[in-house]
Amino acid sequence: MAYLKIPKGWEIPEREATSEAAFLNRRKFLAAMGIGAIGATAILPHPLAAADALYPAKRNPAYKLDRPITDEQFATRYNNFYEFTEQKEGVWKLVDDFKPEPWTIDVSGLVRKPQKLDLDKVLRQIPLEERLYRHRCVEAWSMAVPWTGFPFKALIDLVEPKSEAKYVRLVTFFRPSQAPGQRTLLHYPWPYYEGLTMAEAMNELTFLVTGMYGHAVPKQNGAPIRLVVPWKYGFKSIKSIVAIEFTSEQPRTFWNDAVPSEYHFLANVNPKVPHPRWSQATERVIDTGKIRPTLMYNGYGSYVASLYEKT
Ligand code: MTE
Q1: What are 208-260's pLDDT values in tens digits?
Q2: Does ligand 1 lie within 6 Å of residue 149's CB atom?
Q3: pTM (2 d.p.)
Q4: Does domain 51-308 have CATH number 1.20.140.10?
Q5: Residue 82 C-alpha to ligand 1 middle, in angstroms?
């Protein structure tokens, strides 16, 4: 695929990534915009499941945090969602035209039961639970979020993959009329696409998220359904999924196609392997500005390290 220019989105982070001063400036900026202290009413969940009183779901106590939950105002106003804009503080202001319902997910490829899943029906079929997970962006910022959803495995079981299925490919919507980034950021290979191995997809941590902070997930965080893979850098956690395909070959991924030297298929959190342009040894917690050491596999090694051990 030809590009008009090298994507510049992730050139910003080196400055932002580790600098507390930058964080404090941003805080002043938010305050100046009058959004530092907005009440919960300003966070607009999409209405789909909220109407069904699916939230809050019962918390699964198995998934514990080693740090406080991130202030919701930050988790919902500091986003990466390039379909809308490259500016993290601006995503939530540009999502009004995006219509996350009704919503279907086209499941195809190497499965016995390919089907178009109606999300409303899926949500009646599969029970939701809340989990507290750490989230580590490749840009060296992090947060800790109460996500609501269900294990990806529960959806995979519905479609019965064949034994030849070795990978899962996931795709985001392509709606330039609803998402300004898809109209203006033409050097990106829309729509956004990601992939996991089958073993990763079936791991108990791999979560399909439909809610956060006890209500339906807001548009800027990936309404109406997104992936969360907490031991990988955040770009693997694809938002607003419209298609899932089971394949025998490793699928291509959006960021690897956009900047092959910087973003790889596995993308496991690893403090010892620097990004070509910045260290991954530490991370900036987005609401407090605190710098923390980054943990191998983002602290989830006991769940996933065995997936990557060479035999
Ligand atoms: N999914 C889509 N479709 N588009 C994106 O730009 N950004 C990724 C990921 N999923 C992205 C996406 C990146 S880089 C990160 S860090 C997380 O979403 C951010 O999720 P959050 O906004 O809920 O924190």
Answers
A1: 999 999 999 999 999 999 999 999 999 999 999 999 999 999 999 999 999 99
A2: no
A3: 0.87
A4: no
A5: 8
